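Good day; I would like, with your permission, to put a structural problem before you. What I wish to show you is a protein chain and, alongside it, a tokenised description of its three-dimensional fold. Thank you for your consideration; the sequence and its tokens are set out here:
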Amino acid sequence: MSASWTIKEAAEQLHPAMTLDEVRALVLLFAVPVLGQRRGRGRPVDAYDQPALLRAHAAVIAYRRGLLHGVLVPRSAAS
């Protein structure tokens, strides 16, 4: 069985960090598959494919860094 994370586990483990809402958005935007459910004290919680979450996170962070680089670093006159 492949490794899996709940939304809460992903928010705790990802670096740079993301909020629970950001991880939920990541799951929806990148259609991260549910691998199963985990039982806790309350109702079962979906567990998502960890490698897919890591790839989605990497894509978002790369995009964020690109945006920040474009805003913070002046473009040359040739661009």
